Amino acid sequence: MYTPNRTPSVSPEINITPFVDVMLVLLAVTLIAAPTIKNTITVNLPRAKAGAFHQTKATLVINKNRTLQLNGKAVSQQKLEQTLKTLTSKEILIEADRSISYGTIADILATAHRAGISSLGLVTIHGH
Description:
Elements: H1 17-33, E1 58-62, E2 68-70, E3 73-75, H2 80-85, E4 91-96, H3 102-114, E5 119-122
């Protein structure tokens, strides 16, 4: 039944839709802005009077027959790890023939890693 003297009751619930909208906008702004924030440390490095330091990198050549040459000297794959451990420079460049399989290159990289080589570079020809 309808009673004209009774006023409609107001629901005591909180409307959270505007709150969710604001939170989603803040989340979007945070996700967009986060990659642009950089944590940098400014370091004032000392100066030294010294001659130029040239460190040469060793070159490992792998031809299409899978024979290895380290700095122009033939080396077997079995002795590669031992030979790499004797290098003074822990950086090598790898020149591999295009026909060498990925698995062979992966084996060489793993051997170099076990030998303590800290930096590897793959030599390519610039072009298409």
